[in-house]
Write a structure and sequence with these properties.
This protein is α+β, with helices and mostly antiparallel strands and about 375 residues long. It has 13 helices and nine strands. It is about 55% helix and about 15% strand. Helix 1 (about 20-35) packs antiparallel against helix 2 (about 40-70), helix 3 (about 95-125) packs across helix 6 and helix 6 runs antiparallel to helix 7. The structure holds zinc ion (ZN).
């Protein structure tokens, strides 16, 4: 994420805060200062407790991160957003035991903190109604050590419980999938966990709608789509497993010369050859001109400018023997639509995101594609 500010580093993990983060502080000040009629001290309470809340979120994400590092998984960074935090891991192991430990480590931190603040509260004699946590939070419009302690106890308890909801993208969804995957295949476990999560989201969304709680309706929709995303990701990765770039790329790809004018690309596109073009200088790929870049350059400079001036020189070539999964990752990470396929420095053709969609469609038909023999890594960036 680009629009974020680095705060500090823990064990090599950068903790970053997103530009939109101050919005939540303003919201908290309004919530406790005006809506809860707390005045200035209420507004201060809102800001202080929200900052504490995000310290808790960082600790939760560090729980995931340390567990991941324990299994040798690279943690790229932790980013704080107004809605919470995400730890970006290079991958989440498809080993049920490891996924279970990594997923449960976050909520475990919250429960440990809840016990810590809870023991403080009960020894200090502050009364607390566990059956009415939201009501209790709402009444805490006065800044005192006891009220902040009560808030932190409740916040950790709620955060831990909420994250354990057995629905993707919550931690509980991963815990459930990991438990199912000890008995079932990984795709099957994911499909079942996603279905359970979606039923839960549907039930919650309907109930919230009837109650008129539209924030909770949004949470329901968020969970519902999160579940289908996770299912699609796992199923498509499973379909691509064992397949090579060689089986999908287009050999008939036309290429442009750096000295061609953009008009040449327009003609080739209109003649129906392709939408994205590698740019080759004597068999060497020197750049790539995607359809979106072409359209952008045409509006900006017109058709007479040379390809050399507007082509994308930052591209990653792919070899025919690389797994298709590598290509899928490139498309997702770099937001690109086409990769030049290169072997021993020679340009062979082009692999586009449309090629990948075709393969995915065919791969869903039994025996339509013959998988390769080598095992491939299922790594792809994950957040939790
Ligand atoms: Zn988590």
């Amino acid at each position: 994420m680009d629009q974020s500010l680095k705060l500090f580093k823990v064990r090599g993990i950068a903790i970053r805060v997103h530009m939109t983060f101050p919005l939540i502080l303003i919201w908290a000040a309004l919530q406790f200062g005006i809506l809860a009629r707390g005045g200035w001290s209420g507004a201060l309470f809102g800001i202080v407790t929200t900052l504490f809340l995000f310290v808790i979120v960082v600790l939760h994400e560090l729980g995931h991160s340390f567990a991941a590092q324990h299994y040798g998984v690279e943690v790229k960074q932790i980013v704080l957003l107004p809605i919470g935090g995400v730890a970006q891991l290079a991958e989440i192991p498809e080993n049920p035991r490891q996924e279970f430990v990594i997923a449960i480590a976050g909520p475990a931190v919250n429960f440990a903190l809840a016990i810590f603040f809870g023991s403080f509260l009960f020894t200090s004699g502050t009364s607390l109604s566990l059956t009415d946590l939201p009501g209790m939070l709402f009444q805490l419009g006065r800044t005192s050590l006891a009220s902040i302690g009560a808030y932190l106890f409740a916040a950790n308890l709620l955060l831990g419980l909420f994250n354990l909801l057995p629905a993707f993208p919550m931690d509980g969804g991963r815990v459930l999938r990991a438990l199912l995957a000890t008995k079932l295949s990984y795709p099957r476990a994911t499909t079942i966990a996603a279905a359970i999560g979606q039923s839960l989201a549907l039930f919650m969304g309907l109930w919230a709608f009837l109650q008129g709680d539209f924030f909770l309706v949004l949470v329901g929709i968020f969970i519902f789509t999160g579940a289908s995303q996770e299912r699609n990701l796992v199923l498509s990765r499973n379909a691509l497993a064992g397949l090579k770039v060689r089986q999908a790329f287009s050999r008939q790809a036309r290429f442009l010369s750096p000295d061609d004018e953009l008009g040449v690309a327009v003609e080739l596109t209109l003649q129906g050859f392709q939408a994205d073009f590698p740019v080759c200088d004597q068999e060497q790929v020197v750049g790539i001109l995607t359809h979106s870049r072409l359209v952008q350059a045409l509006t900006q400079y017109g058709a007479a400018i040379r390809v050399r001036e507007v082509m994308d020189v930052e591209f990653t070539p792919i070899s025919p023997d690389q797994p298709l999964m590598d290509a899928q990752r490139q498309f997702a990470e770099r937001h690109s639509d086409a990769l030049p396929v290169i072997e021993n420095g020679r340009f062979l053709g082009l692999l586009t995101s449309r090629d990948l969609v075709e393969v995915l469609q065919l791969a869903s038909i039994p025996n339509a594609l013959r998988p390769g023999t080598t095992e491939t890594s299922l790594a792809s960036e994950q957040v939790l």
